[in-house]
Amino acid sequence: MNLLLAQSASEPMGGLAGWAVSLMDALGGPGAAIIVGLDNLFPPIPSELVLPLAGFSASQGTFTLVEAVVWTTFGSVAGAIIVYYLGLLLGRDRTRRWMAKIPLVKTSDFDKTEAWFRKHGSKAVFFGRMVPIFRSLISLPAGIERMPFWRFLVLTTLGSLIWNTGFVLAGYGLGESWHLVEEYAGFFQYFVIAAVAVALILFVVSRVREKSRIDA
Fold it and tell me: What pTM does this model have?
């Protein structure tokens, strides 16, 4: 497991990337789970950077590709559960005050996430796991509003699995060029947002047609 991944790259890794690779090299899959879990607890740690690194680590033999997906998804869900219970225990006002103390996080991000959850409910939790910033915060309003835990768990697991698998596979396929994934992550975010918009439009259209048939 001790493959010294940072030395295998074409250029030395420093900062967050170097630390993440060192942790995965030392702990394997659990290291990847810890790093991805921190994405939920400390939003400035971007999953768009960490997940491709997990794929890169798998390509170097630190763990298998399947283990990379399983461990990162486990980390995502575990971190989300912690955040869910923080929202449930603290309530809205104390949660908002707590958010204001986190470096690089704006209370407006929480307000937008909360508004999105109140408007879309279950869809917000599922698709929110695939939207940067929102993916780290969406568990808070779910806990504050006391969404049934089993529903939250299923939606969070499915959304995290889709998001993680895509980025891990990209990092695995690109190898030492894993960093290119982060550059194009924004396009995937826009795709998810567009998919949500289309789903909402179809929902509204179906309800309007249903109401028209009843009125007729």
Answer: 0.70
